[in-house]
What we know:
2 copies of one chain form a homodimer.
Chain A: H1 5-8, H2 20-36, H3 43-50, H4 54-60, H5 64-72, H6 88-97, H7 99-107, H8 110-122, H9 124-152, H10 161-179, H11 186-203
Protein name (chains A, B): TetR/AcrR family transcriptional regulator
InterPro entries (chains A, B): Homeodomain-like_sf (IPR009057), HTH-type_TetR-like_transc_reg (IPR050109), HTH_TetR (IPR001647), Tet_transcr_reg_TetR-rel_C_sf (IPR036271), TetR_C (IPR011075)
Organism (chains A, B): Glutamicibacter halophytocola
Amino acid sequence: MKLVPALQVQAPRRPGRPRDEELEQLVLDAALELIDSEQEITVSKLVELSGVSRAAIYRRWPSMTQLIASALNIGRVVQPAILVDGDLRQNIFESLYGRSLEQAAEMYSESRFRHRIRLVMADRELQRAYWESHVKRRRTPVEDALREAMSRGTLSSDLDVEACFDTLAGAAYYQLVVRGEPIRLPETRARLEAAFDTVWRGMVAS
Amino acid sequence: MKLVPALQVQAPRRPGRPRDEELEQLVLDAALELIDSEQEITVSKLVELSGVSRAAIYRRWPSMTQLIASALNIGRVVQPAILVDGDLRQNIFESLYGRSLEQAAEMYSESRFRHRIRLVMADRELQRAYWESHVKRRRTPVEDALREAMSRGTLSSDLDVEACFDTLAGAAYYQLVVRGEPIRLPETRARLEAAFDTVWRGMVAS
């Protein structure tokens, strides 16, 4: 039997270097540049555009899917926790459709949104990775506030919080994905307000 | 000044021929074959695959966008009118998420759905054409039933019917477009039932 010493000796891991975050940003910027110009993302192109070594890229991201999911998330922010005291309805509306959506539209153009949807519809693995590592986290502030309001008796105690979020967010996705209408249009905003109003009535404890 | 007689004489329109519908189906089948195999749709390829002449294709569809929108709609059916007498809640649920969605899943595979979303996200003109000529029509039975129920006092009289539809359909789109979960999964169906329940409570006249 032949020994294969090379495989038995673990390569020593290089200690974390201070510039790791900068390298990460360079690679994600390069990925985003490729996404925005509708080019295929390959490690070679990322090395060329970012100047970061192939080894460093592989060290940071276990798969290209994870890397693209991270890139698609640039410019998206997790909203701060929502105050359950005060006007809960207004606070949740704002978090879902208000300032956050306008801010998102500035940092995350509609064309990038449309491109993200195309990429995830073409690749379910990427879709699930993006969902697990990014979308789920962004849902937390609203979901936490809904649970807190349920326990206080403000909202009905038998709500399915995830389904409520899906419904409220789904109404906004419908505008962009099915109607093809920008969120900023006054008639789109009016529809979202009416949608929120109906769902909210259904959530309030009777 | 030069006369341009050729432009002044209108070419005689050929009378409608009995086989027009067959030709139409041949062209749409060819378009769908190209869509499903992820090839670009060109008139030349359609002529080659369908055997229908270039002139006949141009005569039937004013633009390639209209043609692709028609092809994307194959297998989608407009549901029959919804009975407002009887269990309206159940009838609307069935029309939106029930049999129709299962039937649609058989005739209109999820992979074609995902492909349709990619195409419309890449081309807003196609998205708007598909919305105007197809999606809007499919909404009619549910929207009519909601209006009738509002006028009878079963549902709240101040509902925005379009927003209600967007919300109910949006919850289903969210499963497919954001979560990436097939509608058939038991946990997906449970979420849709919970979503419907909450929205319905918000729509019922209090």
